[in-house]
């Protein structure tokens, strides 16, 4: 992580996120053009969802998710992991250095056939979000529906 960059929010942060989104869109286009993933149904919407999830946790915009970003991601999802488990997750996903993983590593993991712990956790989060209980007062019941 670069110590010289000003990571303050506001206009500069918005520009940083816009640039990051452009870079990730370019990578998404590469995956859309790749014949290896052409059989994947609903690929554009999946890539868009993965891009948003990746941007949410790559706050400094350097293009890599490090161990602390991954820790924050999993804690937010309600699945806290130990430092050793996090290192194992990163090693499993990463194709380069053992300390971080890039967006392309993330996409290969999410779209690939191999099973990964992080992939299962993210899918679990999506299912939990889909099954949220309705808010507000309960629906009125007829007398015949009462026990």
Automatic annotation (TrEMBL):
Acetylation recorded as keyword: yes
Segments for region (Disordered): 128-147
Domain of life: Eukaryota
Subcellular location: Cell projection, Phagocytic cup; Cell projection, Ruffle membrane; Cytoplasm, Cytoskeleton
Principal location: other
Swiss-Prot/TrEMBL keywords: Acetylation, Calcium, Cell membrane, Cell projection, Cytoplasm, Cytoskeleton, Membrane, Metal-binding, Phosphoprotein, Repeat
Protein name (Swiss-Prot/TrEMBL): Allograft inflammatory factor 1
Organism (species): Rhinolophus ferrumequinum
């Amino acid at each position: 992580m670069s110590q010289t960059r000003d990571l303050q929010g506001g206009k500069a942060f918005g520009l940083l996120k816009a640039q990051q989104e452009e870079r990730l869109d370019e990578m998404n286009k590469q995956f859309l053009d790749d014949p290896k993933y052409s059989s994947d149904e609903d690929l554009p919407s999946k890539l868009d969802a993965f891009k948003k999830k990746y941007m949410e946790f790559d706050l400094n915009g350097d293009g890599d998710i490090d161990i602390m970003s991954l820790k924050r991601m999993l804690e937010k999802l309600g699945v806290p992991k130990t430092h050793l488990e996090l290192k194992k997750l990163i090693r499993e996903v990463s194709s380069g250095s053992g300390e971080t993983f890039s967006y392309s590593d993330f996409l290969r993991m999410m779209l690939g056939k191999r099973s990964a712990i992080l992939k299962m956790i993210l899918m679990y989060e999506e299912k939990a979000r889909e099954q949220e209980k309705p808010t507000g007062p309960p629906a009125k019941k007829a007398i015949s529906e009462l026990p």
